[in-house]
Prior knowledge:
CATH architecture of the largest domain: 3-Layer(aba) Sandwich
CATH topology of the largest domain: Aminopeptidase
Strand order of the largest sheet: 17-18-16-15-14-13-12-11-19
Helix content: 10-25%
Shape: elongated
Amino acid sequence: MSEEEKKMIGFKCKKCSRINYPKRARCLSCKGMEFEEVELGKECELVTYTQVYNPPAGYKGDPPLMLGIVKFPNGVLAMGQLAIDHPKDLKLGVKLRPVWGMLREIGGKEVFGFKFELAKKEQTSKLKLGGIEMEEYRGKKVEMEVMGKDVNWKEVMKPYPPRKIVLPNGEEMIVRSQTKDEIEEVVEALLPKTVQHKQLFDLIASEMVTEFYLWREGRPMWGCPAESHFNLVGRVGDEIVGVSNGALSSPEVGNSLHTVAIREGQQVGAQLWGCKLEHYFDVLGIKELHAAAESYRGGTELFQTFGFEEHPDKVVHFGTSPMQRLTKRQWERIRPGKIAGKRI
């Protein structure tokens, strides 16, 4: 489609001048049947919106699907999907603009149409990072204060005692701490995941690769010092089947990063997640864990299953949901049903 064709077009009645949208056989005001095409405008404002947590078949994004009604300067109302990355930026009256893109897939074919995105990409909002209120600028660099710089991390950080877990197919997975010498091998195993973009959750494989190299180079990540970073690797024989990593902002507070199941369908990710929680609370001795759900499924299934609760003043760095937290007391209550296998 040419740029001219991608303009959002209304249909002005030649009899009464009412602009109809979408195209109709007769004008809604005078029943006239002759129209001329007019551009609705490059900007509009949000009148109302809703979030659909059970979107229709063929919708490829992560729930919720956001739908809104917008109003153009000429008074025309239109409904469509809202292409908004950060739901907290949705406010009545916010300026939007129509953009052309894929709406859904029907019968194996992609269906395109107009969506509405923020007219101004760089929105500002208040964010608390490590207890400090900062301005977060969309699309601009945010300087993160590194926490725990005065901690003797060599005394705090301990290796994870290896654990043997029998997978549903009968194979034995050994989970243990990863060393820096294994980074290249683990990254090679993760690479296929970095080009799999079916949902927002798939972005974490690329983030994980970056975090491994930051750890190797002694660089802080997400406000946590490199010395507080740890990685767990799951192997079946010599094959790497999953990895999980995390960091600490203080000896009492952990910041879960990511868990990736390289081999899918064998509960690898769930088992590694349990091992990571065990490492945080039972080995490192933290009192509270903060975690983020990059996907709707992670927030509704994984965190609820483990008894996480929303953190009152923090959001995840993807801006998709509130930060979640788990206390040591809650971990001790649910621990017996969340750890499989045995120490070796």
